């Protein structure tokens, strides 16, 4: 309980106190650097951003108006840790204090890097880097479109390597700016133009080395989309380092340097030359093999096929064999015959009528017929007979014929 | 260039011929015909790759129309 009260008891209006607070906060604190984590992020249709910044134990509301956020490269989102610069502001109508953010940077990495990561994530989710979408390079690119600066080192490198290693390749250069504000639009347009011009087998999108800021155009969404949408296969060859750009990720193939892009084509050409030599060799081998097989078959068949001369010889041989056999058989036969005839002669000797005659028998025959008489019926009285004895012969006349021999009494 | 347009097709034909020939199921007449065809294709493909008459051009676009201009590549060092 107060015994004495102030002589002047001032009663503030809400407006007054708010003005007092506003004065205190805005004058005493004013512009500050503030670190915190974004939450409750909302982008209003007006283009203004509203969010809160918090740490483990406190929260402050924040606004970033369209004029301040329009050049922001990365996206603000909940959970992002940031460092921002701004001014504390008290907004009377809602009784709120907040920080009006003028500049904001992600904590830890640069804003550009964050923008890259965010865009990479977004395009990745959309499928722009999908391996399934990658187009195969043509078997041999006889016409190559190059999107780069006609004055840069990249085009010189590519032209030189192709001239030396694959002079069969025609080249169409679509010259673009490769850095600066307009570069990404020109690169994207050039990719589309080479597609609609239609005389190239593939496109090389390239620029020589530089800082990551120099290469930034190749990280723009418009370029990544143009590469993704290209009907012609795209080789991305940006920079001289291992910095992977979004162009690289969207391309069908990416290499580190312009020279490497040209070397892909040279290597392809050399591989084809080897393949052709191999095919040529196989052709020769196959036909020689086929001819060799036929030759062997022919030899085998020739062996099977007898020539007339061979057959004659064969017959002669057979004839020789047969005739020598015949000679032998003949001799054998003759010997046999001789033997047989010898014994026959002996037997014949034994059977000879002459030898019978020597034993006292005689042989009579009718003269002049010379028929040997065996039966008296052959003769009649008065016939002349010739009788042969063992030694000598005589003729006689038949005086009488006796038909019954037994009645004969001599 | 016609040979360049035909290159891929010709190479495929050649690969098929080599496959057919090595299969060994063709008559001698067919084999010889394929062989002859294959040799021609191999020669034509090799010649196409050996071609050294390259064109280097600059694609220009004026009022929506494309045109080609000669691109000066004479300062591209030629190694001998």
By CATH's scheme, which homologous superfamily of the largest domain in chain A applies?
Hypothetical protein af1403, domain 2
Q: State the secondary-structure class of chain A.
A: alpha/beta
Strand elements of chain B, count: 2
Distance between the termini of chain A: 225 Å
Strand order of the largest sheet of chain A: 1-2-3-5-4
Q: Helical proportion of chain B?
A: 55-70%
Alpha carbon gyration radius of chain A: 68 Å
**Rg of chain B (C-alpha, Å):** 20 Å
What are the secondary-structure elements of chain B, in order, as H or E? HHEE
* Low-pLDDT ranges of chain B: none
Q: Identify the CATH architecture of the largest domain in chain A.
A: 3-Layer(aba) Sandwich
Strand content of chain B: 15-25%
Rough outline of chain B: elongated
Mean pLDDT score of chain B: 84
- Beta fraction of the residues of chain A? 15-25%
Helix residue percentage of chain A: 40-55%
Description:
The complex is a heterodimer of chains A (410) and B (80). In chain A, helix 4 (153-165) packs parallel to helix 8 (258-304) and helix 5 packs parallel to helix 6. Chain A has a 5-stranded mixed barrel. Chain A has a 5-stranded parallel sheet with strand order 7-6-8-9-10, sandwiched between helices. Chain A has helices at 14-29, 66-69, 111-126, 153-165, 183-197, 221-229, 246-250, 258-304, 308-351, 353-358; strands at 31-43, 49-54, 59-64, 81-91, 96-106, 143-148, 170-175, 202-207, 234-238, 253-255, 363-367, 384-388, 393-397. Chain A is of the alpha/beta class. Chain A is built from 10 helices and 13 strands. The model of chain B has no long low-confidence stretch (mean pLDDT 84). Chain B has a domain at 2-53. In chain B, a hairpin with a 2-residue loop joins strand 1 (56-62) and strand 2. With 80 residues, chain B is an alpha+beta fold. Chain B has a two-stranded antiparallel ribbon. The chains are: A alpha/beta (410), B alpha+beta (80). Chain A binds chain B through residues 138-140, 142-143, 145, 150, 156, 159-160, 162-164, 167-175, 193-194, 197, 269, 272-273, 275-276, 279-280, 282-283, 285-287, 289-291, 293-294, and chain B through 1, 4, 7-8, 11, 14-15, 17-18, 21-22, 24, 26, 28, 31-32, 35, 38-39, 42, 45-46, 48-59, 61, 66, 68, 71, 73, 75-79.
